[in-house]
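Now for a typical sample entry:
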Amino acid sequence: MTRRPKKTAGRVRKSSARRGRGSRTLGAAPADTPYHHGALHDALLKAAETVLERDGLAGLTLRAVAREAGVSHAAPTHHFGDLSGLLSELAAIGFRQFNAAMAAADSSGASPLDRAMARAKAYVAYARAHPGMYGLMFRNERLDMTRPSLHEAASASFAGLAGAIGASRHEQIAADTLSLDQAAAIARAWSLVHGFTMLLLDGRLTDILHRLPRDTDPETLLDAMLRSTVGRPPTS
């Protein structure tokens, strides 16, 4: 009696592999496939911004971003390397948004004083609308400032500030070569608005506002501060 040849282990493995390939074509696609490569990069940054504003910087992890975007846990690492890379690219977006708001404010006033007032108010308005992003932009210990996108956006932000201060002083200021007097003017203006913004975001101005006439809001307080300081020549 002739015996039928036994299937070899190799044939069994090949058959199983073929069945496996067939079953994958019928099953769910990998999580990354709905996105084109470039679209996934942008989608991850959008998801990161959502997580940041919703859960704060402490809740912004690579896994949280992947879950928010609906992709594999490896996707953020593939696109940004590590959390610092992701945060740095996200901060670059924040600076570009911020710079656009400042540019719009620059075009809204006729005089240097009007433009300076508009920039300060736009500064605070951006921070109030995007508190998580604003906080990230100034967390240098979490960012890689050597990344080209972040370095370019942050440098443009400082150049805009220097230009605005120069306009209010009726002089040209080169952002990369400052005199001590120019640096003092920039630091003074920045400290005023940034300090006000941080106090406001942290709820530390509530006590002052409660002591003011009814319905006095933060914008009114900021306006009074600016009118008493913006445009004044430096004290000797």
